[in-house]
Amino acid sequence: MISEQYKNMLKGKSIIRELAEFAAARGEEIGYENVFDYSLGNPSVPVPEEFTQTMLNLLTSKSPAELHGYSPSLGIPSVRKKVAQSLNSRFKMNYSENHIFMTSGAAGAIAHAVRCVTKPGDEVLTFAPFFPEYHPYIDITGAVLKVVPPNTDDFQINFTLFEEMLTEKVSAVLINSPNNPSGVIYSTATIKKLADLLRKKEKEYGHEIFIISDEPYREIVFEGEEALYVSNYYDNTLSCYSYSKSLSLPGERIGYIAVNPACVDSDLIVSMCGQISRGIGHNCPPSIIQLAVSEVVDLTSDMSVYEKNMNLIYNKLIELGFTCVKPGGTFYIFPKALEEDAKAFCQKALKYDLILVPGDSFGCPGYFRMAYCIDTEKVERSLPALEKFVKSEYKI
């Protein structure tokens, strides 16, 4: 008998992926350059030239066994050491290689982190709007994801509702800043208040409450903004990172968990991740990609285009009468739809070859997401279509 759990998951396919597939099919009909596809967060800028050169150098200077053989279960020690040194230099931390576990992207990092700090029946809280895949990441472990409703004024944490939901059953809080889908960065005041409240509740409940900090957009921060490193503010933090966005390497599936050395059992957690891998078949990312990333660990792609695209779209949205919190980073923007039903709004947009994602699955009905990681030229061509859509459908 096949698994009913995964069979039932087929009924809840990712709306983002479905829309991306629609956009691809529409592109076959009219040319993809004429489809204004804001569905998928797939980085549009090239990898740094240094990464490409590093790959070429590795292929010509290292043995095939070193490049293509199994890596140790926790990741290649020299790679983990370089990641630790980079984090220490950038964020004034004191990681060693024993606090770093190499993963298949941030998704792999979260999969391990949750299993490290929860048991079946525990609750994990996150904050709307949130990445929809958090549900399978968490719920399949036996823990239960609960979502704190959004503060739509600025998409900072709704602390009143959060404290009501922060019961003794909560073992972890999953945060994402800079945030997908809103592009908002949690302020210093927000992070400090979150840390203070969790320390208070740890004492009250007599057990740890971990922060799992999902940080794939940490490097995509716009002028005048700052993305805080959460481990600087809260000891029991597991940082989950991916190079997918910073180096434009989503297909390489490479990231890590960084265990705050000050957290409870910090000397055990990375080794526990190795045991978790045995159970979920993770078995480390490719050796050659680990080695290549470690040589460019402090570099990023040229991501200035994302801020340029954001300003073009944000200004047009405001001009057309949308309500929208201006992003501080990422390559997403999350406006309020022009009608209560964002699904209907996004369906109407398809007539104008605008592929927009309704906010319902992000825990924020009535809003929609645009992933503007596309060429600026295409963004500029999409703006007349957006204006035509709004004026034709909503008489604005």
Number of strands: 12
Mean of the pLDDT scores?
96
The span between the termini is 55 Å
Class by SSE composition: alpha/beta
Radius of gyration: 21 Å
Task: Please name the fourth-level CATH homologous superfamily of the largest domain.
Answer: Type I PLP-dependent aspartate aminotransferase-like (Major domain)
Strand content: 5-15%
Strand order, sheet with most strands: 2-8-7-6-5-3-4
- How many domains is the backbone divided into? 2
Helix count from the secondary structure assignment: 14
CATH class of the largest domain: Alpha Beta
Overall, the morphology is globular
Helix content bin? 40-55%
The CATH architecture of the largest domain comes to: 3-Layer(aba) Sandwich
Output the CATH topology of the largest domain: Aspartate Aminotransferase, domain 2
Order of helices and strands: HHEHHHEHEHEHEHEEEHHHEHEEEH
Largest sheet: 7 strands, mixed
Walk me through what this model shows:
The protein is globular. Helix 3 packs across helix 11 (287-295), helix 6 (105-117) packs across helix 10 (266-280) and helix 12 runs parallel beside helix 14. Helix content is 42%, strand content 12%. It has 396 residues and is of the alpha/beta class. The strands form 3 sheets. A 7-stranded mixed β-sheet has the order 2-8-7-6-5-3-4, with helices on both faces. The chain has a 3-stranded antiparallel β-sheet with strand order 9-12-11. It has a two-stranded parallel ribbon with strand order 1-10. It contains 14 helices and 12 strands.
